[in-house]
Amino acid sequence: MYSSKITGMGFYVPDTIVTNDDLSKIMDTNDMWIQERTGIKERRWIQKGSEDTSAVMGAKAARIAIERAGLEKEDIDFIVFATLSPDYYFPGGGVMVQDLLDMPTVGALDVRNQCSGFVYSMSVADQFIKTGMYKNILVIGAEYHSNGLDKTTRGRTVAVLFGDGAGAVVLSRNKQKDKGVLSTHLHSQGKFAKELSVTKPNIRNWIPYLMENKDDLSYYPYMDGQKVFKHAIVRFSEAIQEGLQANNLTADDIDLFIPHQANLRITQFVQRRFKLSDDQVYSNIQKYGNTTAASIPIALCEAWEKGRIKDGDLIVIAAFGSGFTWGSIVIRW
Ligand SMILES: CC(C)(COP(=O)(O)OP(=O)(O)OC[C@H]1O[C@@H](n2cnc3c(N)ncnc32)[C@H](O)[C@@H]1OP(=O)(O)O)[C@@H](O)C(=O)NCCC(=O)NCCS
Hints:
32% of the residues lie in helices and 23% in strands. The protein has 11 helices and 13 strands.
Protein backbone atom coordinates (compact mmCIF):
# COMPACT_ATOMS: atom_id res chain seq x y z
CA MET A 1 0.00 0.00 0.00
CA TYR A 2 1.19 3.52 -0.82
CA SER A 3 1.10 6.59 1.36
CA SER A 4 0.83 10.26 0.40
CA LYS A 5 2.82 13.40 1.13
CA ILE A 6 2.57 17.08 0.31
CA THR A 7 5.13 17.94 -2.37
CA GLY A 8 4.07 21.50 -3.27
CA MET A 9 2.01 24.33 -1.81
CA GLY A 10 0.80 27.73 -2.94
CA PHE A 11 -1.65 30.40 -1.92
CA TYR A 12 -3.22 33.50 -3.38
CA VAL A 13 -5.15 36.31 -1.71
CA PRO A 14 -6.63 39.40 -3.39
CA ASP A 15 -4.56 42.61 -3.09
CA THR A 16 -7.24 44.69 -1.38
CA ILE A 17 -6.86 44.83 2.40
CA VAL A 18 -10.04 45.68 4.33
CA THR A 19 -9.29 46.74 7.91
CA ASN A 20 -11.70 46.72 10.83
CA ASP A 21 -11.74 50.52 10.62
CA ASP A 22 -12.79 50.24 6.97
CA LEU A 23 -15.74 48.07 8.09
CA SER A 24 -16.74 50.56 10.77
CA LYS A 25 -17.39 53.05 7.97
CA ILE A 26 -20.05 50.83 6.36
CA MET A 27 -21.65 49.20 9.43
CA ASP A 28 -21.94 49.77 13.17
CA THR A 29 -18.85 47.93 14.36
CA ASN A 30 -15.40 48.79 15.66
CA ASP A 31 -11.83 47.51 15.70
CA MET A 32 -11.89 46.70 19.44
CA TRP A 33 -15.06 44.56 19.24
CA ILE A 34 -13.75 42.57 16.29
CA GLN A 35 -10.23 42.07 17.65
CA GLU A 36 -11.35 41.13 21.17
CA ARG A 37 -13.86 38.55 19.99
CA THR A 38 -12.11 37.12 16.93
CA GLY A 39 -8.46 38.28 16.74
CA ILE A 40 -9.09 39.57 13.21
CA LYS A 41 -7.38 42.85 12.25
CA GLU A 42 -7.94 42.79 8.50
CA ARG A 43 -9.04 40.55 5.67
CA ARG A 44 -8.70 40.49 1.87
CA TRP A 45 -11.80 41.18 -0.20
CA ILE A 46 -12.06 40.93 -3.97
CA GLN A 47 -12.81 44.31 -5.49
CA LYS A 48 -15.67 44.75 -7.95
CA GLY A 49 -14.37 44.41 -11.50
CA SER A 50 -11.62 41.97 -10.52
CA GLU A 51 -11.31 38.76 -12.54
CA ASP A 52 -10.93 36.79 -9.29
CA THR A 53 -13.48 34.17 -8.29
CA SER A 54 -13.07 31.03 -6.18
CA ALA A 55 -12.00 29.03 -9.23
CA VAL A 56 -9.69 31.75 -10.57
CA MET A 57 -7.98 32.20 -7.20
CA GLY A 58 -7.82 28.43 -6.77
CA ALA A 59 -6.10 28.11 -10.14
CA LYS A 60 -3.58 30.82 -9.19
CA ALA A 61 -2.72 29.01 -5.95
CA ALA A 62 -2.58 25.67 -7.79
CA ARG A 63 -0.08 26.97 -10.38
CA ILE A 64 2.35 27.84 -7.57
CA ALA A 65 1.82 24.48 -5.83
CA ILE A 66 2.46 22.50 -9.03
CA GLU A 67 5.63 24.46 -9.78
CA ARG A 68 6.94 24.02 -6.23
CA ALA A 69 6.25 20.28 -6.46
CA GLY A 70 8.60 20.27 -9.45
CA LEU A 71 5.79 18.97 -11.64
CA GLU A 72 4.07 19.96 -14.86
CA LYS A 73 0.29 20.28 -15.09
CA GLU A 74 0.33 17.09 -17.19
CA ASP A 75 1.63 15.19 -14.12
CA ILE A 76 -1.55 15.91 -12.11
CA ASP A 77 -3.95 12.94 -12.15
CA PHE A 78 -6.94 14.40 -10.31
CA ILE A 79 -8.35 17.60 -8.82
CA VAL A 80 -10.24 17.96 -5.53
CA PHE A 81 -11.75 21.43 -5.07
CA ALA A 82 -13.33 22.59 -1.81
CA THR A 83 -15.47 25.71 -1.53
CA LEU A 84 -18.75 27.00 -0.12
CA SER A 85 -18.70 29.90 -2.57
CA PRO A 86 -18.56 28.29 -6.01
CA ASP A 87 -18.55 30.41 -9.16
CA TYR A 88 -21.78 28.72 -10.23
CA TYR A 89 -24.50 26.71 -8.53
CA PHE A 90 -23.33 24.07 -10.99
CA PRO A 91 -20.93 22.94 -12.38
CA GLY A 92 -18.39 22.99 -9.59
CA GLY A 93 -15.06 24.78 -9.36
CA GLY A 94 -12.87 21.74 -9.98
CA VAL A 95 -13.69 21.58 -13.68
CA MET A 96 -13.00 25.29 -13.97
CA VAL A 97 -9.53 24.83 -12.55
CA GLN A 98 -8.97 22.00 -15.05
CA ASP A 99 -9.83 24.46 -17.81
CA LEU A 100 -8.05 27.53 -16.38
CA LEU A 101 -4.82 25.57 -16.03
CA ASP A 102 -5.34 23.98 -19.47
CA MET A 103 -4.87 20.55 -17.95
CA PRO A 104 -5.47 17.18 -19.59
CA THR A 105 -9.01 15.83 -19.06
CA VAL A 106 -8.36 14.49 -15.56
CA GLY A 107 -11.19 13.95 -13.09
CA ALA A 108 -12.31 16.88 -10.95
CA LEU A 109 -14.32 16.51 -7.75
CA ASP A 110 -15.97 19.25 -5.70
CA VAL A 111 -16.21 18.94 -1.93
CA ARG A 112 -18.95 20.86 -0.09
CA ASN A 113 -17.86 20.73 3.52
CA GLN A 114 -17.34 24.41 4.24
CA CYS A 115 -14.70 25.06 6.94
CA SER A 116 -13.81 21.35 7.02
CA GLY A 117 -13.64 21.24 3.23
CA PHE A 118 -9.87 21.09 2.99
CA VAL A 119 -9.59 18.34 5.62
CA TYR A 120 -12.24 16.29 3.80
CA SER A 121 -10.52 16.94 0.45
CA MET A 122 -7.14 15.83 1.75
CA SER A 123 -8.70 12.68 3.15
CA VAL A 124 -10.30 11.86 -0.24
CA ALA A 125 -7.02 12.53 -2.08
CA ASP A 126 -5.07 10.45 0.47
CA GLN A 127 -7.36 7.46 -0.15
CA PHE A 128 -6.95 7.71 -3.94
CA ILE A 129 -3.18 7.68 -3.50
CA LYS A 130 -3.22 4.86 -0.93
CA THR A 131 -5.13 2.58 -3.30
CA GLY A 132 -2.56 3.28 -6.04
CA MET A 133 -5.14 4.82 -8.35
CA TYR A 134 -3.43 8.24 -8.65
CA LYS A 135 0.11 9.57 -8.14
CA ASN A 136 -0.34 13.35 -7.93
CA ILE A 137 -3.52 15.08 -6.83
CA LEU A 138 -4.20 18.79 -6.71
CA VAL A 139 -6.14 19.69 -3.55
CA ILE A 140 -7.56 23.21 -3.50
CA GLY A 141 -9.54 25.27 -0.99
CA ALA A 142 -10.87 28.59 -2.29
CA GLU A 143 -13.47 31.11 -1.15
CA TYR A 144 -15.04 34.27 -2.52
CA HIS A 145 -17.04 35.33 0.54
CA SER A 146 -17.13 39.08 0.23
CA ASN A 147 -19.82 39.34 -2.43
CA GLY A 148 -22.19 37.10 -0.45
CA LEU A 149 -22.08 38.91 2.89
CA ASP A 150 -24.65 41.29 4.32
CA LYS A 151 -22.32 44.27 4.76
CA THR A 152 -24.78 46.31 6.80
CA THR A 153 -25.19 46.51 10.58
CA ARG A 154 -27.82 43.79 10.26
CA GLY A 155 -25.16 41.32 9.03
CA ARG A 156 -22.23 42.51 11.13
CA THR A 157 -21.85 39.41 13.33
CA VAL A 158 -21.03 37.35 10.24
CA ALA A 159 -19.66 39.91 7.78
CA VAL A 160 -16.67 40.92 9.90
CA LEU A 161 -15.43 37.34 10.14
CA PHE A 162 -14.90 36.26 6.56
CA GLY A 163 -12.21 36.90 3.96
CA ASP A 164 -11.42 35.84 0.39
CA GLY A 165 -8.51 33.71 -0.77
CA ALA A 166 -7.27 30.33 -1.96
CA GLY A 167 -4.68 27.74 -1.06
CA ALA A 168 -3.55 24.60 -2.85
CA VAL A 169 -1.33 21.61 -2.28
CA VAL A 170 -0.08 18.79 -4.46
CA LEU A 171 -0.47 15.48 -2.67
CA SER A 172 1.84 12.85 -4.17
CA ARG A 173 2.63 9.17 -3.89
CA ASN A 174 5.20 8.77 -1.16
CA LYS A 175 8.11 6.35 -1.06
CA GLN A 176 9.14 6.98 2.58
CA LYS A 177 6.91 4.82 4.76
CA ASP A 178 7.42 6.80 7.98
CA LYS A 179 6.58 10.17 6.40
CA GLY A 180 3.59 11.89 4.85
CA VAL A 181 -0.08 11.75 5.83
CA LEU A 182 -0.32 9.43 8.85
CA SER A 183 -4.08 9.67 9.37
CA THR A 184 -7.25 11.55 8.58
CA HIS A 185 -10.46 11.49 10.62
CA LEU A 186 -13.80 12.94 9.52
CA HIS A 187 -17.09 13.62 11.32
CA SER A 188 -20.47 15.27 10.84
CA GLN A 189 -23.63 16.04 12.80
CA GLY A 190 -26.36 17.27 10.48
CA LYS A 191 -28.83 18.14 13.20
CA PHE A 192 -26.92 21.42 13.48
CA ALA A 193 -26.98 22.08 9.71
CA LYS A 194 -28.94 25.30 10.03
CA GLU A 195 -26.79 26.84 12.80
CA LEU A 196 -24.27 28.01 10.20
CA SER A 197 -25.82 28.08 6.78
CA VAL A 198 -27.10 29.86 3.71
CA THR A 199 -30.53 28.34 3.18
CA LYS A 200 -31.71 30.14 0.03
CA PRO A 201 -31.81 29.97 -2.87
CA ASN A 202 -32.57 26.28 -2.69
CA ILE A 203 -34.30 24.05 -5.17
CA ARG A 204 -37.74 24.65 -3.55
CA ASN A 205 -37.20 28.39 -3.29
CA TRP A 206 -35.57 29.40 -6.53
CA ILE A 207 -35.33 32.62 -8.49
CA PRO A 208 -39.11 33.31 -8.77
CA TYR A 209 -39.42 32.88 -4.99
CA LEU A 210 -36.66 35.39 -4.36
CA MET A 211 -38.17 37.89 -6.78
CA GLU A 212 -41.49 37.67 -4.93
CA ASN A 213 -39.92 37.70 -1.45
CA LYS A 214 -37.31 40.40 -1.68
CA ASP A 215 -37.22 40.87 2.11
CA ASP A 216 -36.26 37.25 2.75
CA LEU A 217 -32.64 37.52 3.81
CA SER A 218 -31.85 33.82 3.97
CA TYR A 219 -29.57 34.12 0.97
CA TYR A 220 -27.08 35.70 3.41
CA PRO A 221 -25.11 33.46 5.77
CA TYR A 222 -26.80 32.81 9.10
CA MET A 223 -24.80 31.81 12.15
CA ASP A 224 -25.66 31.13 15.75
CA GLY A 225 -22.22 32.32 16.86
CA GLN A 226 -22.37 31.13 20.45
CA LYS A 227 -23.59 27.66 19.51
CA VAL A 228 -20.89 27.39 16.85
CA PHE A 229 -18.28 28.50 19.36
CA LYS A 230 -19.33 25.97 22.01
CA HIS A 231 -19.36 23.06 19.58
CA ALA A 232 -16.13 24.18 17.89
CA ILE A 233 -14.00 24.02 21.03
CA VAL A 234 -15.28 20.54 21.86
CA ARG A 235 -15.01 19.11 18.34
CA PHE A 236 -11.61 20.67 17.60
CA SER A 237 -10.27 19.03 20.75
CA GLU A 238 -11.86 15.66 19.97
CA ALA A 239 -10.52 15.65 16.41
CA ILE A 240 -6.98 16.41 17.57
CA GLN A 241 -7.13 13.79 20.31
CA GLU A 242 -8.47 11.20 17.88
CA GLY A 243 -5.63 11.89 15.42
CA LEU A 244 -2.97 11.76 18.11
CA GLN A 245 -4.33 8.56 19.65
CA ALA A 246 -4.56 6.78 16.30
CA ASN A 247 -0.83 7.34 15.88
CA ASN A 248 0.21 6.67 19.51
CA LEU A 249 1.25 10.30 19.91
CA THR A 250 0.61 12.98 22.51
CA ALA A 251 0.31 16.76 22.32
CA ASP A 252 3.99 17.01 23.32
CA ASP A 253 4.87 15.42 19.98
CA ILE A 254 3.19 18.21 17.99
CA ASP A 255 5.70 20.48 16.26
CA LEU A 256 3.05 22.65 14.65
CA PHE A 257 -0.72 22.70 15.09
CA ILE A 258 -2.45 24.36 12.14
CA PRO A 259 -6.13 24.88 12.94
CA HIS A 260 -8.77 26.07 10.53
CA GLN A 261 -8.61 29.81 11.18
CA ALA A 262 -12.15 30.22 12.52
CA ASN A 263 -11.54 32.53 15.42
CA LEU A 264 -8.41 33.29 17.46
CA ARG A 265 -10.32 32.64 20.70
CA ILE A 266 -11.20 29.12 19.55
CA THR A 267 -7.55 28.48 18.66
CA GLN A 268 -6.39 29.86 22.02
CA PHE A 269 -8.87 27.66 23.87
CA VAL A 270 -7.58 24.56 22.08
CA GLN A 271 -3.98 25.68 22.65
CA ARG A 272 -4.63 25.88 26.41
CA ARG A 273 -6.52 22.57 26.43
CA PHE A 274 -3.51 20.74 24.95
CA LYS A 275 -0.93 22.93 26.78
CA LEU A 276 0.72 23.93 23.51
CA SER A 277 3.32 26.71 23.43
CA ASP A 278 2.98 29.63 21.00
CA ASP A 279 5.71 28.00 18.88
CA GLN A 280 3.51 24.94 18.43
CA VAL A 281 0.53 26.85 17.00
CA TYR A 282 0.13 28.74 13.72
CA SER A 283 -2.39 31.58 13.44
CA ASN A 284 -2.83 34.04 10.62
CA ILE A 285 -6.52 34.90 11.07
CA GLN A 286 -5.32 38.38 12.11
CA LYS A 287 -4.43 39.11 8.44
CA TYR A 288 -6.96 37.11 6.44
CA GLY A 289 -10.05 36.55 8.59
CA ASN A 290 -11.86 33.24 8.20
CA THR A 291 -11.29 32.02 4.63
CA THR A 292 -13.18 28.77 5.29
CA ALA A 293 -11.97 25.98 2.94
CA ALA A 294 -8.93 28.08 2.04
CA SER A 295 -7.77 28.82 5.57
CA ILE A 296 -5.75 25.66 6.23
CA PRO A 297 -3.88 25.52 2.90
CA ILE A 298 -3.11 29.26 3.18
CA ALA A 299 -1.84 28.82 6.75
CA LEU A 300 0.10 25.66 5.89
CA CYS A 301 1.80 27.31 2.94
CA GLU A 302 2.55 30.53 4.82
CA ALA A 303 3.97 28.60 7.80
CA TRP A 304 6.21 26.62 5.44
CA GLU A 305 7.34 29.80 3.66
CA LYS A 306 8.28 31.28 7.05
CA GLY A 307 10.40 28.23 7.91
CA ARG A 308 7.97 27.05 10.62
CA ILE A 309 7.75 23.55 9.06
CA LYS A 310 10.88 21.44 8.86
CA ASP A 311 11.71 17.96 7.65
CA GLY A 312 10.49 15.35 10.16
CA ASP A 313 8.09 17.72 11.97
CA LEU A 314 4.76 16.43 13.25
CA ILE A 315 2.01 18.64 11.84
CA VAL A 316 -1.51 18.37 13.22
CA ILE A 317 -4.34 19.98 11.28
CA ALA A 318 -7.93 20.28 12.54
CA ALA A 319 -11.09 21.92 11.31
CA PHE A 320 -14.65 22.51 12.44
CA GLY A 321 -17.48 24.26 10.66
CA SER A 322 -20.85 24.32 9.00
CA GLY A 323 -22.68 21.01 8.81
CA PHE A 324 -21.56 20.67 11.54
CA THR A 325 -18.52 18.90 10.14
CA TRP A 326 -15.08 18.44 11.65
CA GLY A 327 -11.94 16.39 11.30
CA SER A 328 -8.18 16.18 11.57
CA ILE A 329 -5.07 15.30 9.60
CA VAL A 330 -1.79 14.15 11.14
CA ILE A 331 1.29 14.53 8.94
CA ARG A 332 4.91 13.58 9.48
CA TRP A 333 6.68 16.12 7.24
C1 LIG B 1 -19.48 35.60 16.28
C2 LIG B 1 -18.92 35.89 17.66
C3 LIG B 1 -17.58 36.58 17.53
C4 LIG B 1 -19.89 36.81 18.37
O1 LIG B 1 -19.39 37.06 19.68
P1 LIG B 1 -20.37 37.00 20.93
O2 LIG B 1 -19.58 37.34 22.11
O3 LIG B 1 -21.06 35.66 20.88
O4 LIG B 1 -21.34 38.18 20.60
P2 LIG B 1 -22.93 38.21 20.53
O5 LIG B 1 -23.39 37.60 19.23
O6 LIG B 1 -23.49 37.66 21.81
O7 LIG B 1 -23.18 39.74 20.48
C5 LIG B 1 -22.80 40.58 21.55
C6 LIG B 1 -23.18 41.99 21.20
O8 LIG B 1 -22.31 42.47 20.17
C7 LIG B 1 -23.09 42.93 19.07
N1 LIG B 1 -22.36 42.70 17.84
C8 LIG B 1 -22.46 41.62 17.01
N2 LIG B 1 -21.60 41.77 15.99
C9 LIG B 1 -20.96 42.92 16.17
C10 LIG B 1 -19.95 43.60 15.45
N3 LIG B 1 -19.43 43.12 14.31
N4 LIG B 1 -19.51 44.78 15.93
C11 LIG B 1 -20.00 45.30 17.05
N5 LIG B 1 -20.96 44.70 17.79
C12 LIG B 1 -21.43 43.53 17.35
C13 LIG B 1 -24.38 42.19 19.16
O9 LIG B 1 -25.42 42.86 18.50
C14 LIG B 1 -24.58 42.11 20.64
O10 LIG B 1 -25.10 43.35 21.08
P3 LIG B 1 -26.19 43.40 22.29
O11 LIG B 1 -25.48 42.82 23.49
O12 LIG B 1 -26.49 44.84 22.39
O13 LIG B 1 -27.33 42.55 21.83
C15 LIG B 1 -18.76 34.60 18.51
O14 LIG B 1 -20.01 34.06 18.82
C16 LIG B 1 -17.94 33.57 17.81
O15 LIG B 1 -16.76 33.74 17.65
N6 LIG B 1 -18.56 32.45 17.41
C17 LIG B 1 -17.89 31.44 16.62
C18 LIG B 1 -17.89 31.91 15.20
C19 LIG B 1 -17.05 31.08 14.31
O16 LIG B 1 -15.95 30.72 14.64
N7 LIG B 1 -17.58 30.81 13.13
C20 LIG B 1 -16.89 30.11 12.14
C21 LIG B 1 -16.90 28.66 12.46
S1 LIG B 1 -16.07 27.81 11.25
